[in-house]
Structures are given as structure tokens and as C-alpha cells.
Protein: Nuclear movement protein nudC
Amino acid sequence: MSNPEDYDKLTKEERETRDKEARAREIAEQAALPYTWRQELGELDITVPIPKGTRSRDLTVIIARKKLSVGLKGKDKIMDGELCKEIKVDESTWTIEDQESILIHLEKVNKQQWWENVLTHHPKIDTTKIQPENGKLSDLDGETRAMVEKMMFDQQQKQLGKPTSDEMKKMEALEKFKAAHPELDFSNAKIS
Structure:
């Protein structure tokens, strides 16, 4: 992406378009990798497809503080290189699932930082656009939950072209006022 000053000069629509294009390019680049990955602030999970029927003795997996290497013995490595950030080796593991994929779990040393990529030479993701796993609404305290529910409702209303909760309250207050003052003429009133 070009420099941030250019981005700040764009209109909201231009930013949305550029963000969508960047997101699409990012998805395509990530889909081309020989593995899939997901992360939370403190950990990272990688799934590497392998030929069906592969056993652990057929694999070479090296997990080091700043390096990861995965391959089938006697063949080219599936992934091999320097990790984006450091990991806790003794808390990181790998297992074979259904004899068709390797699940690698990495514990991050810095649990307050999103990774841009798994291996430094692979395409990066935009960490500013990461949305943490949706916690359940029921986990939130009452006030925060009400605020999130209101935001979700208002967003849904906007998408449907309907009034938001605040606009509905204003309209309700106006209707009550009209009912209380039948002598006033509101036919030419502009509501803002």
C-alpha cells in the first residue's frame, strides 16, 4: 500500500474500496500458501495438509525459537524459514490429524502482538485490520453488552435503510410532542 498520507486524503468511499482491494489481495496471497493459519494475541495455530496416510515417522518437523521447518522425509520442505516473531519452544507442539494434516500450535513470547505472517519471507497481512475472535455477548458486563447490542442494531438498521435507535427515539419524542400540542401546525416543519 502507498504511504499513509495518501490514504488520509482519500474519501471514505475510496478508503473502503482500497481496503476491500487490499483485503482481497491478502486473502488470495494467504490462500496460495501451503498451509492455513489463525492467531490470537498469545498463540498461533497452523494447519499443513499432507498426503493421506502420512505418519509421524514420515515427517521432519523442527520447531525452534525463531525457526519452523516442516517436510516429508526425502522430499522438499513444505514450509521452512524464519518465524515472524519468537515463540516459546517448550510450550509449542505439533500433531497429525486424521493422517492428512499437521496441526502446529505455537505459543508467542510476546502475547500482546499480532503477527503479520508466519514465516518472514511469506506475504504479510494487515494487522491493523485484525478483529479479535468474537467473544460471546454474554461474557460482557451489562453496560458494554448494551452498547455493543445497540451498535449492532444501528448498523443493521442502516444497512436496511431504516432509522437507528437514536433516530427512532427522536421521532417518538416528536410524536409525543405533537400529540400534546394539537394546536401547533407541523406540516411544513423540517426535522433534523
